[in-house]
Design a protein that fits this description.
Number of helices: 16
Distance between the termini: 36 Å
Structural class: alpha/beta
Radius of gyration: 21 Å
Shape: globular
Largest sheet: 9 strands, mixed
Oligomer: single chain
Number of strands: 11
Strand content: 5-15%
């Protein structure tokens, strides 16, 4: 899940500051100086982690680390079995769940054991893994690169897909899974950017299709040419292609991670806080129409931004401006060096052969129906799931009060049917 509108607003503010009334920005805004205070004046309880949110409901929680091929060290959380089933000695199918932009694994358990996908999967007999992309709260280390060096942040969601998701799949498959037996393939669930990175991996490294049983794209984002989000439309003409503005914005952390700030947000946004209603700009509206679990929404506001590279944002804006689903645009000169062509190559999504389930809706301003149908046309093994609710939006896939009924239970049912069929 992501707080996309909030952080797009912050992006707009950043860009206006850079313009400063001049034709071009004169210097790079140092986010560390703006947002990192090494000597905060308040002392607050530490923010809680994904392991806490899992463990507080009685489920076993494990924290794992995996190193990618290019040296990033990712933090993964695991619910190895269900304490309700006591099935730790049985072979359990693996399910990997991947978050969206600006988010982390923290977002998935907030709905609690009755509705949250990780707990429902565990109680259905799955070995559940919650991924974290490079640069976020739990994945801020590298074997050789400093966190404060631009080289650390020189990645977009292309690298998250190509390296991070591949590493998560391989690591989960290599980890003992009951009776000393290893699974050969996984089930995958991604939301928003969690779908983009999956499209990237499966098209760029098609051998990984054999390691996937079923894949579930919640609010899939690939093509973005029809997206009508006002902030994206406002920013992409400036940052959606290689120019002086995008050059100054690239390869740095957007709103640097700060333990103090996150601790402050967490304490302000706890359900028992007297000011929790201010944690979500849409909270009043959400309360009015009763569509969203506002406790989960408030908790989510206290865990982000979890840490992203500005190149991830730039890459999305490039997609919107070009109308293509393609690799990062470095500009003509570097494109020729990296790709051998003036423009970056399109992702060959026709190579995605695993069983793809696309869950989409009419009211999603970040995942337009026409764009979803466009990528679906290229997929040889897809199943379409159109949401009947005309109001279902981008965040409903994670926070709607009825997400269990309309998303989580149907997703698990598809996975279980696959498992039953594969045993015959």
């Amino acid at each position: 899940m992501s707080n996309g509108r909030v952080f797009c607003s912050l992006l707009t503010i950043w860009f206006c500051l850079c313009l400063g009334g001049h034709s071009a920005p004169s210097e790079i805004i140092d986010f560390y100086k703006l947002f990192n205070n090494p000597e905060p004046q308040l002392s607050l309880p530490s923010r809680r982690t994904t392991a806490y949110y899992i463990g507080e409901h009685g489920y076993p929680a494990e924290h794992h680390y995996v190193t990618t091929e290019d040296g990033y060290i990712l933090g993964l959380f695991r619910i190895p079995y269900s304490h309700n089933l006591q099935n730790q000695n049985e072979v359990r199918p693996i399910a990997i769940i991947q978050h969206g932009l600006f988010s982390s694994s923290d977002a998935w358990p907030f709905l609690g054991p009755d509705d949250a996908l990780p707990f429902l999967l565990a109680d259905a007999g799955f070995d559940v893994w919650l991924g974290n992309a490079r640069g976020n709260t739990y994945s801020r280390n590298h074997t050789t690169r400093s966190l404060k060096h631009p080289d650390f942040w020189r990645f977009s969601w292309n690298e998250i897909g190509y390296y991070d998701i591949a590493a998560m799949i391989d690591y989960s498959l290599s980890t003992e899974n009951g009776q000393n037996q290893a699974e050969k393939a996984i089930h995958y669930v991604g939301h928003s950017q969690g779908t983009t990175v999956f499209f990237t991996l499966m098209s760029m490294r098609p051998e990984y299709n054999e390691k996937v049983k079923t894949a579930h794209m919640l609010a899939p984002v690939a093509f973005m040419g029809n997206m009508e989000d006002q902030l994206v439309n406002r920013l992409s003409p400036y940052l959606g292609f290689h120019n002086i503005y995008s050059s100054l914005f690239c390869s740095q952390e957007f709103l640097p991670y700060n333990e103090f700030v996150l601790a402050l947000l967490y304490n302000v946004c706890r359900p028992d806080s007297v000011v929790t209603g201010y944690c979500d700009t849409d909270l009043e509206n959400l309360n009015t129409d009763g569509r969203t679990n506002t406790t989960a929404s408030a908790l989510g506001s206290g865990t982000g931004p979890a840490g992203v590279s500005t190149d991830q944002i730039l890459h999305y804006l490039q997609e919107h401006q070009s109308g293509h689903f393609r690799q990062f645009d470095f500009g003509r000169k570097k494109n020729l060096k990296v790709y051998g062509t003036e423009n970056p190559p399109d992702y060959p999504t026709e190579k995605i052969t695993c069983e793809m389930h696309l869950w989409y809706s009419d009211n999603d301003d970040m995942s337009d129906v026409d764009d979803v149908l466009r990528v679906a046309e290229t997929l040889p093994n897809k199943v379409m799931h159109h949401m009947d609710d005309p109001l279902w939006d981008h965040m409903d896939f994670g926070l709607n009060w009825e997400v269990r009924k309309y998303i989580n239970d149907p997703v698990i049912e598809i996975m279980l049917k696959y498992e039953t069929k594969s045993r015959k």
